[in-house]
Amino acid sequence: MNKYLTALALSAVVAAPVCAEEIPTLRVGWMIPAEEAKYLMIKRPELFPDLGKKYKIEWTQFQGTSPMMQALRAGVLHCSTMAPLSMAQAYLGSGLESYIVAQHAHEEKGYFSPYWAVKKDSPIKSAQDLKGKVIGTNSYGSGMYFQMVLWLKQQGLDYEKDVKIVETGFPPSADAIRSGRVDSGPLVQPFALLAEEKGDLRPLFTLSEVQSPTVYSFEGCSKDYGDKHPEVVRLYVKDLQRAMTKLLEDRKLAVEVASEVTRAPAAMLDKYLFTNKDFTHIATMKPNIGAIQQLLTLQSDAGLLAKPVDVSKFVRKDIMAPID
Q: Long-range contacts made by residues 208-211, C-beta under 8 angstroms, separation at least 24?
């Protein structure tokens, strides 16, 4: 990982244009799924008048929020996708200070919540049936990983002794369940929809059981960069809002761009994207600070954080959505 981060940092220096002082470059991490606003900025930059003129973006894809925290600590990224727990762990573990600037994915009643599935004919019916079993996760240290761990603890299970947790990633998760590599694994869209259509898997528990409403992912920027370049962060947040507004107004565009980025068939994405089978989307992209604080308090009370975290330390209102 250290070699990878160093290589990224060196490539960023080599690729920097001569006029870097005139047009600042923001280095941003992104991932799949649930970052449609970023997808539009990546694939349709011409829709954003300030992009390429007042500031530039250098995009880097990651598998989860945890490695993006490492990249932020190393100074390779300025902003990236974050989850409440990965943000808090990075702060407590290495002192990474950051600002929450916009919200990507959240769940509320009536909308999709990620869930852990088992085979349809599996004897696993409850949390207690997971003892001695193998559970999949998208990425160690990710927000969903910690929410799964909290669910296990709430059910009276020791996540270090009672079960074995392995990484599967999101796309291979359903096949990992079917093949028996894991007894239960995480499903997010569109993989949940595909599994439901096939009919061979069933939900065991949803993350909404841990907390609802809950924030799954948001955009964060390092405090150091935000304090030194607030005008660049403001331009970026305004473009994220502009992107989300366009997508909410034109669902066809949302499906088209998501298909280009994820390489999933548009016809399949059209079955759920920006509907109540998807995460909730709001045009303002305003972070739900209260829900983030509630989740971190739950995690702290469960002993999954070394000490309580005050989310107000991660707020700088002049660079946080909504920005007019």
A: 208/107, 208/113, 209/151, 210/147, 210/150, 210/151, 210/154, 210/295, 210/298, 211/147, 211/291, 211/294, 211/295, 211/298
Task: From first to last of the 324 residues of the chain, give the pLDDT tens digit.
Answer: 555 444 444 444 444 444 445 899 999 999 988 899 999 999 999 999 999 999 999 999 998 888 999 999 999 999 999 999 889 999 999 999 999 999 998 998 999 999 999 999 999 999 999 999 999 998 887 778 888 999 999 999 999 999 999 999 888 999 999 999 999 999 998 899 999 999 999 999 999 998 999 998 999 999 999 999 999 999 999 999 999 999 999 999 999 999 999 998 999 999 999 999 999 999 999 999 999 999 999 989 988 889 999 999 999 999 999 998
Locate the DSSP E strands across 108-257.
Answer: 115-119, 134-137, 164-167, 185-187, 201-206, 214-222
Q: Residue 134: helix, strand or coil by DSSP?
A: strand
Residue labelled with tokens 């990633």: 169
What residues have CB less than 8 Å from 180, skipping those under 6 apart?
A: none
Angle at 159 between CA 156 and CA 161, to 5 degrees: 100
- Lateral strand order in the sheet of 98-107: 56-61, 25-30, 79-82, 214-222, 98-107
* Nearest Cα to Cα of residue 211 among 126, 100, 301: 301
Q: Read off the pTM.
A: 0.83
- CA dihedral sign of residues 311, 312, 318, 324: positive
| Cβ contact 32:101 at 8 Å | no
Q: How many C-beta atoms lie closer than 10 Å to residue 54's C-beta? A: 15
Query: How many other CB atoms are found less than 10 A from the CB of residue 300?
Result: 16
Largest CA distance in the chain: 63
**In terms of C-beta density within 10 A (0-12 exposed, 13-18 middle, 19 or more buried), how is residue 14 classed?**
exposed
